[in-house]
Amino acid sequence: MARFKDFNLKLVVIEQLMYIDEKLTPRFSLAGLLKEKGLGDDPWNYAQEHGLAYKVVPEARAYFESLELSDELLAGVEELCLDGGNRVYQECAPVWDGEDDLFDITSLDDLVLLPNLRRVLGSEFLDPDLTAVLESRGVTAD
């Protein structure tokens, strides 16, 4: 199984596989996880009450960090979308407005895990050096 170095890149890959392509199941729901653990079922209230506004909820981080992505699933990823409205971000940080660097990708070392990646939408959210890395690997940066 693939190991990601950049958690935020892994989240974008999960967004594609779980919430867009629906190839990675079951779909994660922070509300469902909190309810299952007896912590309530309102992620926004949970985050507010536990000082987790504008932070990744630890239960969500633990889930996504431990989530295994097979080489087969990763080989199917041809496109990624960097957008502050991604569902995976809402599941991680229900009190987040997209106005800070919480989900910024800082490394593209994990691109080797995505052999068929051809396009990254929203690349303007990447540091220019990272955009250059994409382009050097033949990935269209839109």
From TrEMBL:
<dbReference type="InterPro" id="IPR054187">
    <property type="entry name" value="DUF6892"/>
</dbReference>
<protein>
    <recommendedName>
        <fullName>DUF6892 domain-containing protein</fullName>
    </recommendedName>
</protein>
<feature type="domain" description="DUF6892">
    <location>
        <begin position="1"/>
        <end position="140"/>
    </location>
</feature>
<dbReference type="Pfam" id="PF21832">
    <property type="entry name" value="DUF6892"/>
</dbReference>
